[in-house]
Amino acid sequence: MAHADHTRDPCPWVVLNDFGGAFAMGAIGGGIWHGIKGARNSPRGERLVGAVSVIKARAPVTGGNFGVWGGMFSSFDCAVKGYRQKEDAWNAIISGFMTGGCLAMRSGPRAALGSAVACGILLGVFEGVGVLLSRAMSEVNRPVLPPLPEAQPPAVAVSS
């Protein structure tokens, strides 16, 4: 995986694209999550109103949190790619480490280090699972049937 992925846009546009995608995932997922939570916590007969009010209040916040994480991760990923001049799994692990540390910076250095290590490990697990799945699904590892012997034409009996 030392080659560049030319199917994606250049780095400044990737950051905006990833930020938008992460915001959309967070807003949709937050809408579902907070809608269910709001309906469960509302009195009977007011569940729909409660769900909608909680969705309007909390789904954009969840989307924003996801967007900040995705945008920051993508920014660090572009910076690490530019610095290392490589594109491999270590870029995502380093970027996850840096993102986790930066997002927890306000809680102090100890919390930032803990969050950085946790995010780095999480991204390492994601990358490892991705590598294992790509190896398992590749064409190289598929079993190949042995070639069938060529069928011989039936012998014709000659009668004299």
Q: How are the elements arranged and paired?
A:
Layout: H1 11-40, H2 47-84, H3 89-103, H4 109-137
Helix pairs in contact: 1-2, 2-3, 3-4
Account of the protein in words:
The chain is mostly helical. 70% of the residues lie in helices and 0% in strands. The longest helix is centred in the middle third of the chain and has 38 residues, at 47-84. The chain starts with 10 loop residues before the first helix and ends in a 23-residue tail after the last helix.
Number of helices: 4
The counted number of beta strands is 0
For the record, give the distance between the C-alpha atoms at the N and C termini, rounded to a whole number. 71 Å
Give the radius of gyration.
Answer: 26 Å
Mean pLDDT: 88
Kindly name the structural category. Answer: mainly alpha
Order of helices and strands: HHHH
How would you characterize the largest beta sheet? none
User: Which descriptor suits the 3D outline?
Assistant: flat
Strand content: under 5%
Keywords:
70% helix; 160 residues; 0% strand; mainly alpha; flat
